Structures
1.
Amino acid sequence: MSKHQARKRFGQHFLVDEGVIEGIVRAIAPARTDLMVEIGPGLSALTAPLLERLDRLHVVEIDRDLVARLRRAYPAERVHITEADALTVDFGAFGERLRVVGNLPYNISTPILFHLLDYADHVRDQTFMLQKEVVDRMVAAPGDSDYGRLAVMLQARYDMEKLFDVPADAFDPPPKVVSAIVRMDPLPAERPRPASQRAFAQTVTRAFAQRRKMLRRGLGDWAALVPWEAIGVAPTARAEEVSVAQFMAMSDALVAAGALAGER
């Protein structure tokens, strides 16, 4: 089979290090009947070892040349291929208790993470390889320099753990950055949640839009409507000091005050 030329527009970097591949599969720990979807299977670095442990695997691939290679390599009853941009895929259509895995294209990794938020109720867990910088931002705690909108929005929905780093030379072609593996487990139905997801997202986005400013300035006219003392946040605090629960309380207060719409 001819060598596939990595396409820059798809952010393609193919994992080739057998030790790293083994470590990722071990972290995923597939069981034979798991319902699993791999995003961006590429040259099957993960696909092949996953199929050794699974009855069937769903894959989402945008590159038609790679789709053709997958169709030649695997029977349809073993690998179900969705030829599409992952950002357009209805992951809820695959079923329940979904396990989502993949080496996400770095140029659209954050949009994919936000797209998958809409399907978290269908997901059992997610294990991804991402740029290390992105993973560090995902798992950052309040007060960390990496803590921002990405951490707040994802930590409101998932319990996340950074598993290990992956060096650039584990790929062909090697990216200019170090990568990392992250595991994401959706929080249970009884988790704390905001009165309005939309209002929560708006509050977090506005708070971090000018992250170096104190919140009472960054939030503009919303600041006067926030019960600072009741939610345990000083108005002189900056967004990076505020916990997920406190952002939920802040957005709920803004909904109650009529500053933000309460619909989801």
2.
Amino acid sequence: MISLKQMKYFVEIVDAGSYSRAAERLYVAQSALSRHIKELENELQAVLLERDARHFELTEAGRLFHQRSKRLLQELAETVQQTQHVSKGEQGTIRLLHSSSVTLTAAIGAALHRLLDDFPGVTLEVAKAASDHQVSDIEEGRADLGLVRLPVLRRHANIELREVFSERLVVAVPRRHRLAEQAAGDIAGLRGERFVSLPHPERGGLSYLVAGLCQAQGFFPTAARATSRKTSLLNLIEAGFGIAIVPDSMREVAPAGVRFLDLPPQQAGSIVGLLRRRDTAPIVAKFATAFEQALRQLPGASAPPGAHPTEEAR
């Protein structure tokens, strides 16, 4: 019967390129390695290595056995690791929601990729949901984590909302708009423009924030003839229905016919938060903590003013 030890020794010899280096790596005598390989060849009834006094060459059978053995040993190691994660409660699917205004940029995608490498027992299920809907979904167990654009209006005592980073807002306009050639603008100068996104009376998020910024400049956004609170608002802008104030990260997903104007930092800032249950499962809590740290370190991200966990999701 072929043993795992024989397979491991054979793979190590081939990878090391010599019996002596393999013996050093494995902390075994070279004579013991030679004996195990001879016993392996006897079991297989095949020559794996053609040897002389100083070198060896893989036979065709040896190449096949090396390739398959290495794959089996890797799969076994992964199985052992995953079994340990399951035993410690460190494996499962984490359901992550994000609002349409919190774009899963390339930087966030890369951060999630690194996190999944650090949590090999975890898989992610990602979906979009309005910020206030995320609170209910997480509270009622339909989701585990949520990325939201503040403010969040709904309140649940068991939901923790942590402010993770702030992002500047910009004006998105059609390429033929009168402002399209400008590099920067001012919210007050948008009075009378048609906005393709208006706030829902019972929801927070980006459109609620934008309405507040406009009101601070003395006007309420005028509705365009077609509106949306989703990323499809960018398509409405390209089609010439109106304008919108959006997070700078939306540049990554904007169609070619949309132009962007910077706004003064003191006028237009926005905060992204991470939602989770206070009594969430240990693996979700660990993942959430690591995700929060990764989000704070994103290129170009800045800490929100007075960042701290809020008392409850709002």
